[in-house]
Every structure is written in C-alpha cells, then in structure tokens.
Design brief:
The complex is a heterodimer. Chain A is mainly α. Chain A has two domains: 1-149 and 240-267, no CATH class; 153-229, no CATH class. Helix content of chain A is 70%, strand content 3%. Chain A is built from nine helices and two strands. Chain B has two domains: 5-232, Rossmann fold (3-Layer(aba) Sandwich), CATH 3.40.50.300; 249-287, no CATH class. Chain B has helices at 48-56, 79-88, 105-115, 120-133, 150-162, 180-197, 208-214, 232-237, 239-244, 251-263, 274-283; strands spanning 5-15, 21-32, 37-42, 63-68, 71-73, 89-92, 168-172, 200-204, 217-222, 225-231. In chain B, α6 links the parallel β7 and β8 (200-204). Chain B is globular, with a radius of gyration of 20 Å. The chains are: A mainly alpha, B alpha/beta. At the A-B interface, α7 and α8 of A face α2 and α3 of B.
Chain lengths: 267, 287
C-alpha cells in the first residue's frame, strides 16, 4: 500500500514546497499541454532535463517518483507497444498481416511512452510537494471563473478537500483489512488473475461498508454543525502570491517557449 | 503439543511513510512458555502491536528471528512457512469486526478454514462449534454480520480466528470499544480457552484492572524494548518501575494503598482484584 503516491505529501523544505499551489498547478497544466503537443526527440530530451531538474529542486529522491510510476507502468508500456505495432512508416522492419514494425512506429511508441511518464512525473511532483489542503485551495481559486457558468465550484472544492483528506485513512484501513484477511489465510498476488481478483473481495467489501458508514457520519456531523457549502465563506488559510511565484511562472514560460522552439526547429 | 515462542534478538522496522521507517522492536529476546496467559502493556508506540505482529509473520524481523514450535520467522521466511505459522498463531487485530465481509456469519467464519484447505462440511461444523465457544447461538449463522451488535460482531470475528484451531492466540486490545459486559464476556472466553484448551494467550491492554484480573504474567514494553517480563504481582509491587513506566495500579491495589495509609499498617496480603480485597478486609475485621 505504501507504493501508492497519489495524493501523498512528503514534508521537506524546498523551493518547490514553498511555492504557491496555484503556481504549481498552472505550471503543471502548461507543461502537460506542451508535452501532449511535442513530437521530436530534441524537445523530449529537454523535457526530461526539466523533469530531473524538478525532481532535484524538490529535494525528494528520484526513486520516490519512479516508484509512483510503477503501478501504471504496464499500462504505459502496453499503449506504447500497441502504437509501435500498428503504425506504418517509411522503413518497415517487420510485417505480418495488420502488424507492422516501422521506424515511424518505433518513434511514435517511444514518444507515447515519454509522454505518459513525463506527465505522471510532473503530476507526482505537484502532489508530493503540496499539502492536499493547499492543493484544493489552489484548485478552487483557479476554478472560480466557472461559477459564472453555474458550476457549483464551492461544493466541488469541499468534495475534493474531503476526498484528499481521507486518502491516508483509506490506505491505512486497506492495510489493516488486508492484514486481517492474511491472518485468515487469504493470500494476495498468488495464483491466476481470477484468483488474485477473488482474493480482493474480502478486502473491498469491508472497506466499502466502512466508507459508506463513515461518510454518513461525516455528513451528519457537518449538518449538525450547520455547514452549508453554497454559502459564501471566508478562509482561515490565505493563499499568498509572492514574488517568487511570479518569477517561477516566468521561468516556466521561458522553458515552454524554448521547447516549442526546439520542437519546430528540429522537425 | 508444546508451542514455545522464542524471540532471539529480534529487531523490526515499521514503515511510516514512503521514506520514513520507525524502529518498532529493538533487540527483543524473550521466551514464552506454552499455556501462559500474558498481558502486554506499555505506552502508545512502545511496540506492543509490533510484538504481536512478528509472532504472526505480519511484520518480519529485520534482524534476529522468532521460533515457534519448530518454525522460524526471519526476514526472508517464505510464504508457505508464514501460512503455517498463521495457522498455529491466531491473531485478533484491534477492532477485528472490520474484517467481516461475507453475506452471512457462517460463510464468514468458514472463510479462514477454507483458505487452509479444510473441506466445506468440516468448516461448517467448525463454524457451529466456535460460535458456541464464543457464546453465541447458532441461529445467527444465517444472519448478515453487518446486522449484528458491536459485541456480537467482535465475537463473530474472534470465532473466525478460533475456527483456524490455533494453539496460540494473540489479541490486540480485545476489549476496547465494548461495554463492560461485553469486555467481561470476551475475557471470560479467553480465560476458558486458556484453562480448558491450554491455549497460550497474549493480549495487549491499557487497563491495569484487566491485567490484574485475567493475566498471569505481564510484559512491559517501552521504545521497542521489553522492560519487564514476569509475574503480575512482581510488577505491581515494583513501585519504581510502575512510576517510571507511567502505569496505573489496579483499582483494588490503589484502594488498598490508601486504606493502609489511613490505618497506618499494612494489610496481610497484596490484593489485585476487588474480590480478593473484600475477602482480606473481612478477614482482617475491617468490614
């Protein structure tokens, strides 16, 4: 369970930790848009450089990041391989019915692999360095304009805040129930895929039951204390935009322009 | 069958985050004879739960090993041995009712034995037997475990472990969160298992009255080390240790101490439970 990094915050002091969550969110979104649109080797090389730079300044060891990719690694590899097998190119190395391996296909496959891993790494960087509560504050600030489109932003952000808040509890509980069933001779990760799935039933059922019960209790407590999500409220924590944030955003934009340039120039 | 539990310089780490590790057990050497009834006490984070978990193989020692009836648990014990250990050492976690999942009580109790390859018919028999053992009637076999009361749920969960027919039973705060009656019933059950079946029982508790009433020996832990292991009388008479470990005295003994201070002389016998105290007071002519 300790391998799941999504929504986990690691408290160390670094520049990345000190930045405003909005800066990190905006930068991450900009980078993700960029990564999706990049399609040459030089630009990807530069992006990898930036990814390692981000890991370095976050002062969290890269192995933590790569551990975060692990759970979805097979998914990424599968997507990349499919891309590789079904794309035709100028030079074909191997062909059998629908399946072709070509220079262009290999390149596309590699790029897909890079895209997924880079996007995951950057998203992990945001969640590792930002407290969940700051993350939701930042998100709800950035979503504010959508209020005019009748999107219930306040409700959404409180829902998000609660969801983030309970991730660690849920993980702990999963660990506990897994232990409890292990004691009763249940084995995880052994046997055929069907057996492995079956072994998870005794874990998921109790967790569903307790989660439903807990959300009911939480809803009651919030009602009793007179909580209304649709009311305008002030906030105890104030987000503060500092000079450092403006500066960081400028650096990010410079990087983005540079990579766009690389992308066009080397095509 | 003799099922001695031996800890040989056991050190274990507990993962508290993706990066952090905490030392849960620090060089523990311990030998627990078969058929004992032991309470484990100590402050939060002292390593009580970890001590239980290493006996069951949920937490593997980083150094040293645990020997239980010819089986060894060390940092690279294989899954098969662990499974055999878990059959011998039944473990009841804190709030064990969170493990209930099946659509009815019978299926839930059968889950453990079936995992260990017991045939269905026999598992069903075991379910009836253990349910009776924990003091519940057979008509709840077809009920959903989620529809039971708190105390009933806990006893069903314990029945689920007893159905494995373990020779050693370890429990993490078995009484917590139950009303006094429910607690009493759980401990009556443990006493019965210990006396009639000769089961070795270890339980973690914070309540010194439970120690005084039900345990024979006590393990006191602090910072992952075993500070004291011996008779409960020896622990409660060792005032220095009690104070150092921030432990309470059982109600009866505390009363006795105050009473002795008032009358200016000691009573003829150290009393750990209310019953003993009442007898001594009557004998000495104070009541």
């Amino acid at each position: 369970m300790n391998y799941l990094l999504l929504g986990r915050y690691i408290p160390v002091t670094s520049i990345l930790h000190k930045l405003d969550p909005r800066t990190k969110l905006i930068s991450a979104v900009l980078f993700i848009i960029l990564i999706v649109n990049v399609n040459n080797g030089a630009a990807f090389l530069a992006l990898w450089g930036i990814a390692f730079l981000v890991m370095y300044i976050s002062r969290i060891p890269p192995r933590v990041y790569f551990r975060g990719i692990k759970p979805i690694l097979w998914f990424i590899i599968l997507t990349a391989i499919l891309q590789m097998l079904f794309t035709t190119g100028t030079k074909t190395f191997f062909q059998w019915r629908m399946i072709t391996i070509s220079d262009y296909g290999i390149e596309r496959g590699l790029f897909i692999f890079f895209r997924f891993t880079l996007i995951t790494l950057l998203s992990i960087a945001v969640t590792l360095t930002t407290k969940p509560i700051d993350l939701t504050d930042g998100l709800s600030f950035l979503l504010k304009p959508f209020q005019y489109l009748k999107v219930p932003v306040n409700e959404l952000s409180i829902t998000l805040a609660i969801a983030f808040r309970f991730i660690p509890n849920l993980l702990d509980e999963t660990q506990k129930v897994m232990d409890a069933q292990r004691i009763r001779g249940n084995e995880f990760g052994v046997g055929s895929p069907l057996q492995q799935m079956k072994a998870l039933v005794p874990v998921f059922l109790p967790i569903f039951a307790s989660t439903l019960q807990r959300s009911e209790e939480l809803a009651n407590v919030m009602d009793v204390r007179g909580f209304r999500a649709d009311q305008k409220r002030s906030s105890f924590r104030q987000l503060q935009w500092k000079k450092m944030d403006t500066l960081s955003l400028c650096i990010v934009i410079v990087f983005i322009i540079w990579i766009r340039w690389l992308n066009i120039h080397f095509n | 069958m003799v099922m001695e539990i031996q800890f040989h310089n056991v050190t274990a780490d507990y993962k508290t985050g993706p990066l952090k590790k905490t030392r849960a057990l620090n060089d523990v050497t311990l030998s627990i004879p078969s058929g004992d009834m032991i309470a484990i006490v100590g402050q939060t984070g002292a390593g009580k739960s970890s001590l239980l978990k290493t006996m069951n193989g949920l937490l593997l020692p980083a150094e040293g090993f645990v020997a239980i009836g010819g089986m060894k648990i060390h940092h690279q014990t294989d899954k098969l041995t662990l499974k055999r250990v878990r059959k011998k050492v039944g473990m009841v976690l804190q709030f064990p009712e969170s493990q209930l999942f099946a659509e009815n009580v019978e299926k839930d109790i059968c889950f453990g034995p079936l995992n260990y390859g017991v045939p269905l018919a026999e598992a069903r028999k075991l379910a009836r037997k253990t349910l009776q053992l924990v003091g519940l009637s057979a008509d709840i076999l077809s009920k959903s475990p989620f529809s039971l009361s708190g105390g009933e749920k806990r006893r069903v969960a314990i029945a689920g472990i007893l159905a494995l027919e373990p020779e050693i039973l370890v429990l993490d705060e078995p009484g917590v969160g139950l009303d006094p009656e429910g607690k009493e019933e759980i401990f009556q059950l443990l006493t019965k298992l210990n006396r009639e079946k000769g089961m070795t029982i270890l339980f973690v508790t914070h309540d010194m009255n439970e120690v005084a009433r039900y345990a024979e020996n006590v393990i006191v832990m602090q910072n992952g080390r075993v500070i004291f292991y011996g008779k409960k009388h020896d622990l409660f008479l060792n005032q220095e240790l009690i104070q150092m470990m921030h432990l309470d005295l059982p109600d009866a003994l505390r009363f006795q101490r105050l009473f002795e201070k008032k009358i200016g002389k000691p009573l003829p016998k150290i009393c750990l439970t209310e019953e003993e105290l009442a007898d001594v007071l009557i004998e000495a002519g104070y009541a």
